[in-house]
Amino acid sequence: MKRTFKLALALSVAGCAFAGQVSPDFRVTNPATKVDVVVQFSGTPTAALFGLLGGNGATTKKQFSKIPKVQIITVPAGKVNVIAQLPGVKRISPDRVVKRHLDLTAGTVGSNIANQYGWTGQDIGVAVIDSGIDVNNADLKTTSGASRVVYSEDFTGQNTTADLYGHGTHVAGIVGGNGANSGGRYTGIAPGAKLINLRVLDETGSGSDSWVIAAINRAIELKFTYNIRIINLSLGRPIYESFLLDPLCQAVEAAHQAGIVVVVAAGNEGRDNTYNAMGYGTVGAPGNDPFVITVGSMKSEGTANKSDDMIASYSAKGPTVVDHFVKPDMVAPGNIIASLRVAGSTLDATNSGNRVDPTLYGGAANSTPMYFTMNGTSMATPVVAGAAALLIQQNPAITADQVKGRLMQTASKSFPTSSVAVDPTTLVSYPAYYDAFTVGAGYLDIMAALNNTTLSPGSVPSLVAVFDASSGTVSLVSPSQVAWGEQVAWGEQVAWGEQVAWGEQVAWGEQVAWGEQVAWGESAIFGATTVINGTNVAVLNASVPVAQSTTAGFRAVWNSTSSFATGLTSATSIIGKGEK
Fold this sequence. Notes:
The protein is α/β, with parallel strands linked by helices. Among the domains are: about 60 residues, Alpha-Beta Plaits; about 300 residues, CATH 3.40.50.200. About 20% of the residues lie in helices and about 20% in strands. It has 15 helices and 27 strands. The strands form eight sheets. Strands 7, 8, 9, 11, 13, 14, 15 and 16 form an eight-stranded mixed β-sheet that branches. A four-stranded antiparallel β-sheet has the order 3-4-2-5. A hairpin with a 6-residue loop joins strand 3 and strand 4.
C-alpha cells in the first residue's frame, strides 16, 4: 500500500502517533493474512523470545549480522499487536516502500581542480544503494578496461543487478564516472573510486525498508573487503516516527558506527505547501537521522561559477518533523545533471527528451547518446559522496564525523537573501529564503575542504531547533543538550560546541539573524558570525509562514508529526527540464 506523506497538526494526530509499540501506519485488513513487518528489539533477541514469536505464528524472514536488533518477520496481521507486547520487542512497523528519491557540476564544486592534483578517490569504496549499475559502461572502467564496479548484489528478489530503472547508473556516474564516453567532459567527482552495486529499487524505482536495511548490512559486512568508506542513498520515504524508532535510521546509524560516511538525499518535496509551510518540514527518512549527511539541491544556472547559483525549489527543507533536526546539512548541484544513460531503462524509454545530444561532447550527430539529464536531490547526493571519497583518499585516517564536519565547515556561506524559481511548464513561482533549513551549513566547496586541516574532536550530529512557546523563540542547540533518553549516546564531545542560537533569541515574525553564539573551536560550521554572507543577514522574515506563530505553516512544522495516508521508499529524482 502506498502512503503519501503530509504534515499534520498535533491536534489531529498527536493522540495516536506513539500509542503502544506498533507504528500507527500499520493497518490490519484481514487478521489471517500473513504480512512482513520490521521488528526492532531492545536487545539481541534470545532463543526464548524466538520461541514466543513462533508460538504466535511468526517466522523470521531476514536477519542482519551487523544490525542484530532489527529483523524482518512474517506474521499473521492479527497477531502483530500481540507480539508487540512481548518482553524484548521494542517496536513493529510495516515493511514500508522506499523510492528513488556533469561538466558544470564538477567545475561548480571544484572537483575538476582536485582531480588535477591527484585526488580522484582512488581505491575508495562507495556503496551505491539504488536501482543497480550498468557494470559494462566505459565511464565506470579503469584505463585497462576492468570494471570499477567491484561487487554487485540484488536485494529485490528479481535476481538481476542490472539497472532496469536507469537511476543507479546515473548516480554512479556522478560519483565516479571517468568521462570515457565524452572525452572527459562528463567526469564524475571521484573518477578513481571503486563502486559497490547494491540493488534495492526495481524497474519502477520502488523498493522497501527491508531491502534497504539488507543492503546497508551487506555494505558493513564488506567494508574491509572493498574498503567501503561511503554509502550513497539517493532514495527515501516519509518520516513516520522519531529517528530513535525508525528502522531505516537504525540501519544508517549502524553504518555510521562502523566508520562509514552515509550520504542521503533530502528529498524533493520542497514545493509542498499543503499546510502553508512553503516546503518547510519536508525532509524524508533516513535523511532525518542526525548522524548522516543530508543533501539538498542547488541549480548551477549553466555556469561553473557559484555566484549565480540558486536553490532548487523542489529541494526539501527542514526542520525534520518529530525531532526538529536542522536539515539538510548542506547543498550541492542537483539540477539538470548530465550523467550516464541506461538505454532501454524505464527512465530512458519514457523520457527520451532527456538524452544528451552527442554533438555536445564531441560525438557524431547520428551516434547513440551516452548521457542523460536528471534533476533532484538524488543527483546532489552523489556529488557529496564523491567529495567524501576525495577527503578520505587524502587522509585515510579521517573519521565519518570528521568528514561531515569538514564538508560543512568549509561549505560556501555566500548566498542571496532570497530568490524565486519559476516552473517552466506551469509558470508557478516558488520563493525561497536561504536559511539553515534550506541550505544547511552552505554550498559544497571541495577545494576548501581539501585545503582545510581541521578535524572535529567528537561526533558531529546535526543541530536541533528548539521552539520555546513561552517566549516565541527558537534556538539551535547541540543534541547533547536534548534529553533523548538512554537510547542515544552522544559521547563526551559534540563538535558543535555548547549552543548555537538564532541571534539573541529574536522572536519569529521579526527578522531572524545569526548572532555570535555559534562556536565550533575558532571556526563555526555555520560561519564565524553568520550562516549567510555578511553580518546580520536575515534567515527568516515575516513573509515566511513558518516564521509566524499564528499561521498553519508554523503549527504544521513545530507542532506536528507525520500522518499515515500513503508512503514509499523511492528514488529522489525528478524527470523534466528543470526550472527557470
